Amino acid sequence: MPDQPDPPEKWRVYKEDKTPDPEPPLSVHPPTSNPPQVPYGQSSSYNPVVITSSGTSAAPKIVLLVVALLVLGGVVAGAIAIFAAVGGVGGLGGGIDAKDPEDFEEFTEEFEKKFGRTDVQSVNLYTDYIIVYLPYSEDRDDDRQIGYTWRGGDEFEEWHRSTSTEPTFDLTEIDTSAIDGMCDSVLSRADGATPDDCYIFLRKPPDGSEGWYRASASDSFNRSVWTEYDLNGVEVGRSE
C-alpha cells in the first residue's frame, strides 16, 4: 500500500517474565490506636498482641487483639477502690452514737471550737447525728434561728433557718453523763422499739418546770411514749 512502511524482515516475539516480584518488607509496628479507658488512679493494662502474616497479597495482614480480661480487671479494681473510699453504704451515715455521753461531750467541744460560743436553744440527739439550734446572731433583739447537723469531727452542716424566741442555755453547764440510760424507760414501754428508735431532746424548760430532757420512742403501732428528766438525769415526768 502506498505511504506504508515496509514490514520488518523478522518479528520479535514477547516472552512473559514469570518471576514474581519480591514482596515489600513487613511492618513490625502496630497501627496507631488510643489506649482503653481505665478508672482514675489505675494503671493501664493495655497489652496488645500483634500477629503478622503474609499471604498471596503484597500487603501484610495485621490483627490487633486487646486482652479484655486485663482491662476488665482494672475496671473492677477501680470500682472497689471507689467503694472503699466512701466507706461503703455505712459510710454515708454518721460515725457517732449521739446518745453516748462521751460523743455528746465531744460535740460540745467541737461546737465551741467551730463557733466560738456555747449558747444554744436546743439540742436533739438522734441515732448517729445531733441537730443543734442556736440564735443566728448574738444580738438579743434578733429572733433569727439557725440549725446545724453534726455527725462527728469538726464539720457542722447547715440544716435549717427560722425564727424563734426560745431561751438559750450554756452547753458547758450540761453534765453529759446525765443522758446515760435515759432511753431505758421509753424502750421498756414501747413494744418493738429498739435503741435506734429512741431520741433525746434537750432544751431549757419554762419557769416552773424541771424537764430539761425528754426521751421519746414509738411502738410498732406508732404510738409515742416519753419520759422527762431534770439536769441531773432524775425522772420528773412521763406519758401515760
UniProtKB/TrEMBL annotation:
The chain crosses the membrane at residues 62-86. Residues 7-21 have a biased composition (Basic and acidic residues). Residues 1-41 are annotated as: Disordered. Keywords: Membrane, Transmembrane, Transmembrane helix. Residues 22-38 have a biased composition (Pro residues). This is Uncharacterized protein.
